[in-house]
Write a structure and sequence with these properties.
By secondary structure, the chain is mainly alpha-helical. It is 76% helix and 4% strand. The protein has 5 helices and 3 strands, in the order H-H-H-H-E-E-E-H. Strands 1-2-3 form a 3-stranded antiparallel beta sheet. The protein is elongated, with a radius of gyration of 18 Å. The protein starts with a helix and ends with a helix.
Length: 164
C-alpha cells in the first residue's frame, strides 16, 4: 500500500490536468491511510480475535480503552513483582497507544475527506508537498512507518504481559 501511495503521490505531482491531479492526490492520502490501518488491524486481531475487523472509526477507542486497560493491568502485576523492565515496556506502550489512536483519528478524517468530500480540493500551491484539509502529503507518508513502530512496541508489551 505504501508503495502505491508513493506512486500516486508522484503521479499527482506530474499531472498537469487539475482534475487528474486532485484524483491522484486524494488517492495517495487514501493509500497512506490504508498502509497505516492494515498492519494495525492485523496486530489487534492477533492480540484479541474480536478486535479483528473493527470499523475504522472504532480503532482509536479500542486503543485508548481496551488495549490500555490490558496494558495497565499488566503494568500493575509487573510492578507488584518488581519486574521494572516490563513496567517500562508497558508504560511506553501505553504512551504509544495514545499516539497511535491520535494518528488513526486524524488519518481516518483525512481518508474520509479524500474519499467522500470532493468539495475540499487538494491544494498544490506548496509544490510537491501538496495538502488535503491542511495536512501535507509528507505527513501522511510518515503515518505507516510511525504506526509500524508503535504497533511493534504495543504488541511486544502485550505479548510480554500475557506470557506471565
Amino acid at each position: 500500500m505504501e508503495e502505491v501511495g508513493n506512486y500516486l503521490q508522484r503521479e499527482a505531482i506530474q499531472r498537469t490536468d487539475p482534475h487528474q491531479r486532485d484524483l491522484f492526490g486524494r488517492s495517495a492520502f487514501n493509500r497512506f491511510y490504508y498502509a497505516t490501518f492494515i498492519p494495525l488491524s492485523n496486530a489487534l486481531a492477533k492480540m484479541k480475535p474480536e478486535w479483528g475487523g473493527l470499523p475504522h472509526k472504532n480503532v482509536p477507542t479500542v486503543l485508548r480503552e481496551s488495549v490500555i486497560k490490558g496494558l495497565k493491568e499488566g503494568l500493575k502485576r509487573a510492578n507488584r513483582v518488581g519486574d521494572y523492565e516490563t513496567v517500562s515496556v508497558c508504560s511506553r506502550a501505553i504512551d504509544y497507544c495514545h499516539q497511535l489512536a491520535d494518528l488513526m483519528e486524524s488519518g481516518y478524517a483525512i481518508r474520509v475527506t479524500a474519499d467522500y468530500n470532493s468539495a475540499v480540493p487538494v491544494d498544490f500551491t506548496s509544490g510537491t508537498d501538496f495538502r488535503l484539509a491542511s495536512v501535507p502529503v509528507s505527513a501522511a507518508k510518515q503515518w505507516p512507518g510511525r504506526a509500524v513502530a508503535y504497533v511493534e512496541a504495543i504488541s511486544n508489551a502485550w505479548r510480554q504481559i500475557n506470557e506471565q
